[in-house]
User: What shape does this take?
Amino acid sequence: MSQLATSLYIYYIICILIDIISTIFYVLLLIFLTSKLISTSDKTISKEFFVLFVISGVFDLIFLIEEYINFRIPQFAWFPDFYMNSYRYSIYVGPCFTYSIASLILIGLNSVNVSINRLTAILYPIKYSLIWSGLNLKLLIAWPILVTIIFFFSFIQAVGDYGIDDGDGRMYQIYTDEWVNQIIWYLLIGSHAITVLLVGTINYYVVSQMRKISSTGKVLTNITKTDIVFVKYTQVYFVIVLFTLGLECAQIISSNLGLIGVYNNCMTVYVGLETVLVFFSPFTLVILSREIRRRFLVWLGLNKLSDKFGDSNTVVQAQRQASNVHGRTIPTKVI
Assistant: This one.
């Protein structure tokens, strides 16, 4: 086994281990949040934000399962006989490939929703619950799903296939119709470009408004430190989506130039990037939200860990940093 093959093997094993541990964590967190959302007596969980989180989480996990079957295992160069001699002729290859692209579009659009959620939480704290409830909440949840469904059924008939890199055995998905392949990839890149533009604009506007308010010395009595911390969350996620967009551009360029090795390397990096896209939200939520972290650990029966990490100095420091936007202190109420 060459040094490159050994490095790739180690990389794939690390990704698999991270995915297994993170999936267990994500499932438990979703069960916890769902149980709290259903419970009308527990006011700790705000449905305005966490309904979005739970719905996105369900789609994330379905996407990850599909990716392992149709993309990651072939990318790992495992079971080549099955994929190249049997599965590639299945009617499921094309629809599954299209579903994968649709899921990536959905992940991007959901990040727009999260940014809008943070925008309303910061700028309209009094009306926040009203904006994110009832019909408004249903429409805000539905529009990314509707866009994704339209995309999926528009290309569900596209025929997919697998190719293989003779050098290292990595397999990759393609559409047999080159024109369809180009259209789908450009739609994916276009959707992520729009996502980057919208999320970047919203985040810039939120930060600029917070700076403007702070310059007046006005106390944001209806905004919690957690609200401000989650603005930081959307900013980091913006960087991740921006990197995703750049990698997708590299993929389409290398594909058009017939650089299969470069294309495969981009897809290999994409494996790790997908893991970040899927699991960034749950881990960030638990790290940033002291109350959610504490209650989640108690729910798991880890009371000692809850006492130790439920009020960590790291989070307190993060909240202090979050309340200082570009050198300006944002007064907030303490919860």
